[in-house]
TrEMBL record:
Limits of the Thioredoxin domain: 1-68
InterPro entries membership: PDI, Thioredoxin-like_sf, Thioredoxin_domain
Protein name (Swiss-Prot/TrEMBL): Thioredoxin domain-containing protein
Keywords for the protein's UniProt record, in alphabetical order: Signal
Any single Gene Ontology cellular-component annotation: endoplasmic reticulum
GO terms under biological process: protein folding
Family: Belongs to the protein disulfide isomerase family.
Domain of life according to the entry: Eukaryota
Recorded GO MF terms: protein disulfide isomerase activity
Keyword Metal-binding (UniProt): no
Organism listed in the record: Zooxanthella nutricula
Entries under Pfam families matching the protein: Thioredoxin
Length: 168
């Protein structure tokens, strides 16, 4: 993906409305990556810099270019002219809360999101444990069947099919 990403960065380097860039999350960009929720590499984020979202589209140049062509300024307190009536009302509601009210709301919503992530991790860990147990049981059961003489039965069957006779 890196060569295609680098081409996209070059294509948008002079854009006044779209920023296409990369950050090294293993070095100087580690703090920024933690702040915006980068959990794996490569991760592509888009949207308002204060509320970036995960990109879920294709990773080739064609898909990246198509997505980037649709990017631009978004509805926000700095771009109210891009907002519909519902979003303007929501922005007013958040402004009217005051700084402390917004901090509290943001902390509550972030805690909700962390709980959802933790619940999902617990679920996946449970699935992994169940998978491991089922896989071990399957391997044990298959080994028991083979050890019960199945291989020898197959050999006798194949020998007899070929018309072979043996004395016991």
């Amino acid at each position: 993906m890196k060569p295609d990403w680098d081409k996209l960065v070059a294509e948008y380097k002079d854009s006044k409305t779209v920023l296409v860039a990369d950050v090294d999350c293993t070095a100087g960009g580690k703090e920024l990556c933690n702040e915006v929720g980068v959990r794996g590499y490569p991760t592509i984020k888009h949207g308002d810099p204060s509320d970036l979202e995960d990109y879920k589209g294709g990773r080739d140049l064609k898909a990246l270019k198509k997505f980037a062509e649709g990017l631009g300024p978004l509805c926000s307190p700095a771009n109210l002219d891009l907002c519909d009536a519902d979003k303007k009302a929501k922005i007013k509601e958040f402004k009217d809360m005051g700084s402390e009210g917004r901090k509290k709301l943001i902390a509550e919503k972030e805690a909700e999101m962390q709980k959802i992530e933790a619940d999902f991790k617990t679920f996946v860990d449970g699935l992994q444990k169940s998978y491991t147990e089922a896989n071990e049981k399957k391997d044990k059961d298959l080994a028991a069947i083979k050890e019960s003489g199945m291989g020898l039965a197959k050999a006798v069957h194949a020998h007899e099919k070929k018309g072979g006779k043996s004395e016991l």
